[in-house]
Amino acid sequence: MDFRKFPVKVMHMRDYPFVFPVKETVYKEIGGRKLRFFVFEPDAAVANRTAVLFFNGGTFMQSPVTPADFQYHAHYLASKGYVAICVECRTAYDAGFTPLQAIRDARSAVRRLRGRASEWGVDPNRVVVCASSSGGYTVVSAIMFDHLNDEGDDLSVSPVPDALVIFAAGMDGVNIMERLYPELLPEAQSISPYHNVKKCLPPTLWIIGTADPLYEQNRDFVERMTAAGNDIAWVEYEGMEHGFFRHGRHGNRPLEETRERIAEFLKSKGF
User: Fold this and answer.
1) Segment 225-247 mean pLDDT
2) 134: which residues sit within 8 A by CB, 6+ positions away?
3) How many helices (H) and strands (E) does the chain have?
4) What is the helix (H) or strand (E) element at residue 173, kind and residue range?
5) Contact by Cβ (8 Å): 157, 111
6) Strands (E), 56-121
7) Distance CA 46, CA 61 (A)
8) 12: pLDDT confidence band, cut at 50, 70 and 90?
9) Where are the alpha helices (DSSP H) in the chain?
10) In this structure, what are the phi and psi dihedrals at residue 265, rounded to the nearest 5 degrees?
């Protein structure tokens, strides 16, 4: 089913179901769209903190998943002293959307935070990205493919984070475009992480359930990326499905375990 054939209502400022207080700020304006950071700040106002940017999945079709889906991970990390930010990017709800726009938005988001890090009490060399599903494809592509930039981006500021956390994400761009965006097939291989293995990622934590349909693809990709020289810690959850870590699933046990594991990973890398 082509979900993009459904009527699209362009929503320039969407409301999301956050249950925790957040600070909202626009990090980018493009095509009449104001894209926002939803910020969870720690209680202690100190300088040179680590920031974690969260990119949700479900963005390549009209899905109920929103930036608020990562709020429980973000709120927890804020309680541990991190500046945690749920990031809004363009999605299939935006007229004329393609994944190329989301990739550009992810690069803009990291640049915007890093370029104005002092305003948030953040160390520009302590920027972490965490993403799931289509958000994972988006952020890995944002790291790998340097040519995808929007006008207004400060190209002197690096869009590559200092650490990365991925929850099961499709890395085969050819497969993604065949299913959802066939108009991008002529360039699909050039924007497919799976087809462009190289040393390029920061230290990475990769989390996946063994029952996830992406398990074999992700395992093969991570093995080849590791062989290429990338530092990737692979963590699998036996029998768990795609999105198993989301709030409300399995009595929230995986949610609690994965946010603790992320904090442990960041601490082990000096963040």
Assistant:
1) 98
2) 57, 58, 59, 60, 99, 102, 169, 170
3) 7, 8
4) helix 173-180
5) yes
6) 83-87
7) 39
8) low
9) 71-79, 99-115, 133-144, 173-180, 185-188, 215-227, 253-268
10) -60, -45
Tell me how far apart the alpha carbons of residues 271 and 267 are, in angstroms, rounded to a whole number: 5
CA 246 to chain centroid, in Å, comes to 14
Chain length of the chain: 271
Which helix (DSSP H) or strand (DSSP E) does residue 103 occupy?
helix 99-115
Contact 50, 82 (CB under 8 A): yes
- Alpha-carbon distance of 54 to 127, in angstroms, equals 11
Of the candidates 207, 206, 209, 205, which has an alpha carbon nearest to the alpha carbon of residue 242? 209
For residues 126 and 51, the answer to whether their CB atoms sit within 8 Å is yes
Rg for the chain, CA atoms, rounded: 17
Cβ neighbours for 129, distance < 8 A, ≥ 6 positions apart:
52, 53, 55, 106, 110, 139, 161, 163, 164, 165
- The secondary structure of residue 151, as a DSSP letter, is T
| CATH code of 72's domain | 3.40.50.1820
Please determine, for residue 4, whether its predicted confidence score (pLDDT) is greater than 80: no
Q: What is the pLDDT of residue 47?
A: 86
- What is the number of domains present in the chain? 1
Copy the structure tokens of residue 242: 């795609």
Q: Which helix (H) or strand (E) holds 137?
A: helix 133-144
Residue 177 confidence (pLDDT) above 50? yes
What is the extent of the structural domain holding 90? Answer: 3-268
Give the rounded distance of the alpha carbon of 216 from its chain centre.
21
Question: Rounded to an integer, what distance in angstroms lies between the CA atom of residue 71 and that of residue 50?
Answer: 17
